[in-house]
Amino acid sequence: MVSAPVYGDIKPQDDYTHPLGPEQNFNESMYFNFFDNAKGLGGFLRIGNRANEKYAEVTLTLYQPDGTVLFNWKRPEIENNDGFDAGGMKFETIDPLVKLRTTYEGHAVSLKDPKQMADPGQAFRENPHKKVSIDLLHEAVAPVYGQTNNERADADPEQGFGRAHYEQHMHVTGTVSIDGETTQIDAYGLRDHSWGPRYWQNIYSYRWLTCSFGPELNVMVSEIRRTPEERTQGGVVIRDGKLERIKTIDLDSAFQDERIHHQRMTATLGLENGEQVTLEGLVKGYIPLRNRRASMTTHIGEGMTEYRCLGHTALGISEYLDQV
């Protein structure tokens, strides 16, 4: 565990919720993923508070070694932005920027064919539901990186996608129980925290690749297109706690089903020191998610991915967002 350096203007108090902004679409969210390489399983938990709209977005995804995915999504009512506690899911900051806890008590639908989630209503009706209990401790293995942009005002909140954002790679231990069968977790993963105006429909696409290979190597790759023509590339490679920023990304991806569901990728990463690093990924578990607003539908493909980089192999996440 490290009380690591912070890259950006993040402060310990930022690891709690922030004053609710005036924007109707103000969103504050925390996200945690974890992958147990020895057991071949993992998942992620997310709460997005939309207190001005009086609800939270609560997402649970658990990837099993046989390809089965357990999933739940809820939209419970909330009255304020005082904490992350909704729909049976709860996030606690124990030691800011160092140690956090995630818990969940509830159910999830069990999908032998996770692509059924392309039609969520049918998937929830036609598949068995299982009781899920999660208790995980997330402890930092690498620096915090990101920006709060607290001084920046959004010119048009309706076009916002999160004013502030930071990320951190973590060691994750605890338990995951499915229908009373408990698995001890010893995993690595990544967490992020963002706040500000957000609609999922306000960017054209993004590619987000993250993997913690352990304290010695951590990678995050981000390519965002706000329009088809405008592309922002970035990310980090962290070796033994030393952070180097990614300046360029050459990403080659292979898809199934008319370039909808990604299956593998190779990213050539140009670092600020002039070095080039290759990250290769193969999707081992996959579920297609979606977000709807007005007449627009956003596809978000979530892949538990086996990554290879600099002689290391480990599981992580590959998240591909596209507007349908």
SSE layout and pairing:
Blueprint: E1 6-7, E2 26-36, E3 41-50, E4 55-63, E5 69-74, E6 84-86, E7 89-95, E8 99-111, H1 120-126, E9 129-140, E10 144-147, E11 164-178, E12 181-197, E13 205-212, E14 217-225, E15 231-239, E16 242-256, E17 261-271, E18 276-293, E19 296-309, E20 312-323
Parallel strand pairs: 1-10
Antiparallel strand pairs: 2-3, 2-12, 3-4, 4-5, 5-8, 6-7, 7-8, 8-9, 9-11, 10-11, 11-12, 13-14, 13-20, 14-15, 15-16, 16-17, 17-18, 18-19, 19-20
Structural notes for this entry:
With 324 residues, this protein is mostly beta strands. It has a single domain, classed as AttH-like domain (AttH-like fold), CATH 2.40.370. It contains one helix and 20 strands. The strands form two sheets. The chain has an eight-stranded antiparallel β-barrel. It has an eight-stranded antiparallel barrel with strand order 13-14-15-16-17-18-19-20. Strand 2 and strand 3 form a beta hairpin.
Task: Please describe the structure with a list of short key phrases separated by commas or semicolons.
324 residues; mainly beta; AttH-like fold; eight-stranded antiparallel β-barrel; 1 helix; 20 strands; globular
Summarize the structure.
The protein has 324 residues and is mainly beta. The chain contains 1 helix and 20 strands. Helices cover 2% and strands 63% of the residues.
**CATH fold call:** AttH-like fold
What is the C-alpha radius of gyration, as a whole number of Å?
18 Å
Largest sheet: 8 strands, antiparallel, barrel
Strand order within the widest beta sheet: 2-3-4-5-8-9-11-12
Look at the structure and name the CATH superfamily. Answer: AttH-like domain
Shape: globular
What's the oligomerization state? single chain
**CATH class type:** Mainly Beta
- Please report which band the strand proportion falls in: under 5%, 5-15%, 15-25%, 25-35%, 35-45% or over 45%: over 45%
Structural class: mainly beta
Count of extended strands:
20
What is the mean pLDDT? 93
Helix segment tally: 1
Residue share in helix: under 10%
- Helix and strand string, N-terminal first? EEEEEEEEHEEEEEEEEEEEE
CATH architecture: Beta Barrel
Stretches with pLDDT under 50, minimum 5 residues: none
